[in-house]
Write a structure and sequence with these properties.
Helix content is 48%, strand content 14%. It has 341 residues and is α/β, with parallel strands linked by helices. Helix 3 crosses helix 12.
Length: 341
């Protein structure tokens, strides 16, 4: 690396984001971003690639291994439980660099899912080496000692233990099952997205629960939402066990006391945040915006109103879905520790 100007720049310059992988051709798309681009982007996915964003495909092996460079910390979640809000608040209260749902992690999760199958494109050893390489890339900042915190997409919880390793710290956001179902039912887009992800999630859940007794076609739509909650919670139960390195946060409790929650999350990540910066972040516009699309207003009060309406409109289907999860918790007793009620 010492003799290659590009590799030297890449090692030190967070503006060169490894955006996505082309696994078939073993290459990575590098996108050129400013620090403001990182801070404003709700998603570092295909929506990022507007005409003004420069990018270029490079062979994976043309990119350096950064060795013992700092690794990022992580925000994991079950989906639609305030992870983007938490990321924005942490970035507002501190000098952390937020990376929200980088696409490259999805490629790692795809590889990990198939690593022991004949169709795997990487060997287990190559997966481990490239996992470490990606963590070094995502840990770069724009200034010395600037911390990077990755807000992963919900499906990435399946490899959370690989990403955090022995030393990394993580925040995991969830809500009890009834609140999750109500939240998904309250938005047409969230319901569409959840149903689209249901086939992959029930396959993952079946891999976590031996002799899983259900097929997706047997489940009505609201029960598929409950199954999605159970998949992500069971994944977290396996990959993010309770302990000092992982902070589990009920998003409903976070909304009830946002300043205390932000202070606790900052302390968990070891961020030098004081009470004034916490209060400024909470009092600013972030708490009154829809975090995934800040141009739209959204507040905790509106969220509660929409949940209450969904609970009223779909009460029988919600009760059936919760009973379905409770039956599985009786069959697989470790699930009884999850907040089903």
């Amino acid at each position: 690396m010492a003799d290659d100007p590009f590799q030297r720049r890449f090692a030190a310059d967070a503006s060169l984001l490894p955006h996505m992988a082309d696994l078939a051709n073993d290459r990575v798309l590098i996108a050129l971003l400013s620090e403001d681009d990182y801070r404003s982007a709700s998603f570092l996915d295909q929506r990022l690639l507007t005409d003004r964003i420069g990018r270029e495909w490079l062979a994976w092996d043309a990119l350096p291994d950064l060795g013992d460079a700092p690794r990022p910390d992580f925000i994991f979640h079950i989906g639609h439980v305030g992870s983007t809000l938490a990321s924005r608040l942490l970035a507002a209260a501190s000098d952390t660099l937020p990376l929200r749902e980088p696409m490259l992690l999805r490629s790692l999760a795809q590889v990990a899912e198939r690593i022991d199958r004949p169709e795997s494109v990487w060997s287990p050893d190559l997966y481990r080496r490239r996992l470490a390489q990606v963590l070094g890339w995502l840990g770069r900042g724009f200034a010395p000692r600037q911390r990077a915190i990755v807000k992963a997409s919900s499906v990435i919880t399946a490899i959370a233990d690989d990403l955090t390793g022995a030393e990394g710290r993580a925040l995991f956001l969830y809500v009890p099952l009834p609140r999750y179902i109500e939240t998904i039912l309250a938005g047409e887009a969230s319901m569409t997205e959840t149903l689209a992800q249901a086939p992959a999630r029930i396959a993952r859940l079946a891999g976590l629960l031996p002799d899983f007794p259900h097929a997706l076609w047997q489940l009505p739509p609201v029960t598929r939402v409950a199954m999605s909650w159970l998949c992500e919670m069971a994944s977290a139960q396996r990959t993010l066990p309770a302990g000092p390195r992982t902070l589990w946060v009920d998003f409903e409790a976070m909304l009830a006391s946002p300043a205390a929650a932000l202070a606790a999350q900052s302390a968990h990540f070891g961020l030098p945040v004081d009470a004034a910066s916490v209060e400024a972040a909470i009092a600013g516009p972030i708490m009154q915006q829809y975090s995934k699309a800040p141009e739209h207003g959204y507040s905790p009060d509106l969220r509660r109103q929409l949940q209450a309406q969904a609970a009223s409109d779909h009460a029988p289907a919600i009760a059936e879905a919760i009973a379905w999860v409770e039956a599985l918790a009786r069959r697989y007793t470790h699930l009884a520790d999850l907040p089903i009620r």
